[in-house]
Amino acid sequence: MSNSPSEFRKAVESLRRTQVRPEIRVEPIRPPQRLAPWTYALSAEIPSRDGGELATGRLVLLYDPDGVEAWDGVLRLVAFASAEIEPDIGGDPLLPEVGWSWLTGALADRAAAHRAAGGTVTQTTSTRFGDLHGPRTTVTLELRGSWTADSADLRPHLLAFADLLSMAAGLPPEGVAVLPTA
Fold this sequence. Notes:
By secondary structure, the chain is α+β, with helices and mostly antiparallel strands. It is 25% helix and 39% strand. It contains 4 helices and 6 strands. It has helices at 6-17, 87-90, 95-109, 155-169; strands at 25-29, 38-47, 53-68, 73-85, 114-127, 137-149. Strands 1-2-3-4-6-5 form a 6-stranded antiparallel beta sheet. Helix 3 (95-109) packs antiparallel against helix 4. The chain is globular, with a radius of gyration of 17 Å.
């Protein structure tokens, strides 16, 4: 990392120093190779109380000091998020639009200056039959998105990504406590 460009080092350091809400575990992972001259990646997960996962994701930083025309810049963030959604809302035909709005709204709420955003949202319904254990029907929402950051301060981008995962996992807004049901 010491021989990497200063803008990339600054971007990586801003990601490393960012504290997300305590329910989310974030850690560095091996980044994909050959997508850009310089890469860095984080995994994120929101564990459930029973040891499973409410939501998982990855955020990858791509850096090309020469810029990439399709990126419209030099710092590209690539996100993947996946969460199991309640079956009663999983069949909603507007769910992909809602999922995409979770990302764009989080970027706007965190003032994460960006451009050239694009991606896909996939909803998958699985139904179990026979001796398979688990809920009969599950719905999974997957979001794949990317955008170009306007500066090397990526703190608001990581916080927006954490907000996206939190919304997909069904967590209340940060700082809001859920009252126990009787």
